[in-house]
Design brief:
Largest sheet of chain A: 6 strands, mixed
Structural class of chain B: mainly alpha
Radius of gyration of chain B: 21 Å
Number of helices of chain B: 13
Strand content of chain A: 15-25%
Strand order of the largest sheet of chain A: 6-7-8-3-9-10
Oligomer: heterodimer
Largest sheet of chain B: 2 strands, antiparallel
Distance between the termini of chain A: 34 Å
Shape of chain A: globular
Helix content of chain A: 25-40%
Number of helices of chain A: 10
Number of strands of chain B: 2
Strand content of chain B: under 5%
Shape of chain B: globular
Strand order of the largest sheet of chain B: 1-2
Structural class of chain A: alpha/beta
Order of helices and strands of chain B: HHHHEHEHHHHHHHH
Chain lengths: ~240, ~325
């Protein structure tokens, strides 16, 4: 089997000079897939994703994008290489309008970005209505849409979402999941960290259960949902 | 009762000087607020940056005057202004490279930056005094008045005169032009928007590929422009003395904080709030009240709330009230 589109293989490392948080952890996502990282609190879910994005120092292991080793690149350079990242918090420019947020998302591009803005509006119609409103005045779910829209502006080849549904109501959460599936249907591989393990695994092509920075279980979303041990430990029976 | 004369006296002694002083403070406060919003520290050297810019402008003005160059009825200093701005830009960029860049690399805390700016302030302070001396310098020339008090009286037949100095007119017009240009830049251009984005959320700006070095450089350049213009206008309107510019720091900071630090719109509003508070509280209202009130109520004293020597107490007082009750300022700024 060929290398997945984006893979962090056997990653070991932590923040700065601190202790290792990830231990021999492997996470990957293929073209057209949704991969989901779940696990208990403090399992290193977000850390695993940040490792893929170059926000912590890996002592061992490597990150490859489309076969190219990008382990040494800074997050900014990885954006240029085609990775889109939506942080969990502080992921929008609150004082700027929705449209300005999208413009800033496409800052590194030198070509015309208006077409991409239209595509984002097509994907998230509510944003078109609110285009001239400061993003900080929007509701939680709408802010997340702005955040994802901002990341889509670089036309990324892979999109990474860190807990996109954190802090939103269940109804909004369902809507966000629908939108994420829609984004994925455009062919964009999505890697996502989620608290709501059950729902996330339902839409996932591939799931990673992390425990204490290690791969505990890996499989398709359906397999993991069906696995009695995963159910017992993480999904509440 | 004579409301018309009261109004003219009010305009002459309060409104016109207040507008001019407010514009100068607003331009100064804009510089402070930009530094706070983007470099995230309170720049104590701002008053002395203004002094430096004004000094260079004055030197060029004198040079132009010695060559017989003049700007007709307008002050020669306006011709010298672009050169003053250019040299000031070089100075602040040099300071940034030599001093602030080091602390940015260290990711120093804002309070350290404030102390560093205090040091820079003393350096610039010394530099200006070394070059031009600590004394008073006059450099305004050209037509002194737009409207003279006597002409106004003859025109209207009123007892009170209204005088508008050329420098006051230039101050207000320049302030409007500069502020409009600044807001256009911040809101409409890609670079301006990237500065706002960097001010709003530094991490996300970096993720979006915004180059922090460029943002910092452009910020300093704009600040040098604002500081030099504000300083020169103040010097034309009053006179240039390095110590006065150092003292201006207080009302300028008060203006920026009252408006909400980091918020450009707030800086302008704050400038006028401080200016008008200062002018109205230190103005002797006797004349205006004599016109406005019936004779029986005419005041005996000067009706001056505070001597002009204490004008800085006004900025201080407003600053304390704002920090106690609305630390983010009138407009949504960052809390201090």
């Amino acid at each position: 089997m060929s290398d997945p589109y984006l893979i962090g293989s056997a990653m070991t490392g932590g923040y700065g000079k601190g202790p290792d948080i990830l231990h021999d952890c492997t996470i990957s996502v293929n073209k057209g897939e949704i991969a989901v990282i779940v696990g208990p609190n403090g399992a290193g879910k977000s850390t695993g994703m940040k490792a893929l994005f170059g926000m912590l120092n890996l002592r061992l292991g490597a990150v490859r994008l489309d076969g190219e080793d990008i382990t040494a690149l800074s997050p900014q350079d990885r954006v240029i290489k085609g990775m889109g990242f939506v942080p969990q918090t502080h992921n929008i420019f609150t004082s700027m309008t929705v449209e300005e947020n999208l413009e800033m998302g496409g800052f590194i591009r030198t070509d015309d970005i208006s077409e991409t803005i239209e595509q984002v509006y097509h994907l998230f119609p509510i944003l078109k209505d609110k285009r001239n409103q400061p993003a900080g005045e929007l509701s939680g779910g709408q802010r997340q849409q702005v955040a994802v829209g901002r990341a889509l502006m670089t036309k990324p080849k892979v999109l990474m979402l860190d807990e996109p549904t954190a802090g939103v109501s269940p109804i909004v959460m369902d809507e966000l999941f629908d939108r994420i599936i829609e984004v994925s249907r455009t062919g964009l591989p999505i890697l996502m960290v989620e608290q709501n393990a059950k729902q996330a695994l339902e839409i996932a092509d591939k799931g990673y259960v992390l425990v204490q920075g290690r791969n505990a279980f890996t499989g398709t979303g359906q397999d993991l949902l069906a696995d009695p041990e995963v159910r017992k430990s993480f999904l509440g029976g | 009762m004579d409301y018309l004369n009261a109004l003219v006296a009010l305009a002459n002694f309060v409104i016109v000087p207040g507008l001019a002083y407010g514009s100068q403070l607003a331009l100064g406060a804009l510089g402070v607020t930009l530094i706070y919003g983007i470099l995230r520290f309170s720049n104590f050297a701002h008053g002395d940056t203004m002094a430096f810019g004004t000094m260079v402008t004055i030197l060029f003005t004198w040079w132009f005057q010695s060559m017989g160059l003049s700007f007709g009825p307008l002050p020669t200093a306006l011709l010298a202004l672009p050169f003053g701005i250019g040299v000031t830009i070089l100075l602040v960029l040099g300071t940034d490279k030599a001093i602030y860049a080091f602390y940015r690399e260290q990711k120093a805390k804002p309070v350290i930056f404030v102390m560093v700016s205090l040091g820079v302030m003393f350096m610039m302070n010394g530099l200006v005094r070394f070059i031009i001396g600590p004394g008073d310098q006059r450099f305004s020339d050209g037509e002194r008045f737009l409207i003279k008090a006597r002409t106004f009286k003859e025109m209207t037949g009123l007892r009170e005169g209204l005088a508008i100095k050329t420098s006051q007119g230039i101050t207000v017009i320049t302030a409007i032009v500069v502020v409009a240009a600044l807001f256009w830049f911040l809101n409409k251009t890609r670079t301006g928007k990237s500065m706002r984005a960097y001010s709003d959320n530094e991490d996300l700006a970096l993720l979006s590929g915004i180059n922090p070095d460029r943002v910092v450089m452009i910020t300093w350049m704009i600040v040098a422009v604002l500081a030099t213009i504000a300083g020169t206008l103040y010097g034309l309107d009053k006179s240039f003395k390095p110590f006065t510019y150092f003292q201006l720091l207080l009302p300028i900071f008060a203006a920026a904080i009252v408006g909400g630090l980091g918020n450009p719109l707030g800086a302008i509003a704050g400038g006028f709030v401080i200016a008008f508070s200062e002018v109205t509280i230190t103005y002797a209202w006797k004349k205006v009240l004599n016109y406005a009130l019936p004779d029986a109520l005419a005041p005996d004293g000067l009706v001056q709330l505070l001597s002009t020597d204490y004008k800085f107490a006004v900025s201080f007082g407003i600053l304390i009230v704002v920090l106690l009750f609305k630390p983010t300022g009138l407009f949504k700024g960052k809390s201090v």
